[in-house]
Amino acid sequence: MTLALETRGADLGRFNTFGLPGRAARLVHVRAAEQLRALAREPDWAHTPRLVLGGGSNLVLGGDFAGIVLKVDIAGRRLLRAEAEAWIVEAGAGENWHDFVRWTLAQGWPGLENLSLIPGTVGAAPIQNIGAYGLEIVDRFDSLDAIDLDTGAARSFGVADCGFGYRDSVFKRQPGRWLVTAVRFRLPRPWQPVTRYADVARELAARGIEVPGALDISDAVIAIRRRKLPDPAEIGNAGSFFKNPVVEADACARLLAAHPAMPHYPQADGREKLAAGWLIEQVGWKGRDLGPVGCYERQALVLVNRGGATGADVRRIADAIMADVEARFGVRLEPEPVFV
Predict the structure, then answer these.
(1) What residues are labeled active site?
(2) Which one of 17, 261, 271, 309 has the minimum C-beta count within 10 Å?
(3) Distance (Å, whole) CA 66 – CA 164
């Protein structure tokens, strides 16, 4: 069965922000859940490799993909209802995340401003449980709708169903199983600013803002991210490449004894979160290249495509960085992007 909006042998280079080469045997632009139910009825569907693709900003493409790539292009955004304690806002999974955040602010529904300028789509946000500057998706999540790609059945997920963790969810742990079609957010009333991160506080102070509004915080976050992170339109990258590792308190104490300047952040469960960028800098990788992939000179957490890189090149430098950090600190870094 051939669906409308389908391409055979599609070039995937323009669908991943790293700009890595590869082709898909089949590429389907998904604009409605009905397409997925039709696909699930294909005779060989159960044995077809599947890749769900949003904005391609959290992906390391290893080459050609022999199965079907489902490019999520489901649009739409609306206020579902205004409750006494929250606005409930819904967006289609294919909506651009940053555009959606700014739209909510323009409508007078604050709450997502700390997550401004994160690349990708709305549907990918809960899969990765994206977070920045003191806020994660789980903090503003209400529910989502998804299609079980094994059966074509629709299901709604509440927060407890999603298995959210640090840059993690049940969807990320079951790649190719679920395709998110719509996400709903609970934006609290009354709104309270989240400005505990030093970078945000400094940026607001530099702008002379003592009592910030949500738009002030969004503008500050955008300015910070633009200073630190490369624009994928100018140089290929997947944003922050490594998760900040979380270690037991006694392990952190041992590291601090040897490295007193090491940044560390207490967690609610008694563990400590370390700054992966600092660890990478200490082993000399910031600004250094390995073949056509480099560790960005302004932010050690970001790997960049200097030109002509492949997925194997990205894997090579990531493995080298992880090995050096583990040898020096005994801490194993974990990549954020999904390797395909």
Answers:
(1) 167, 240, 336
(2) 261
(3) 30
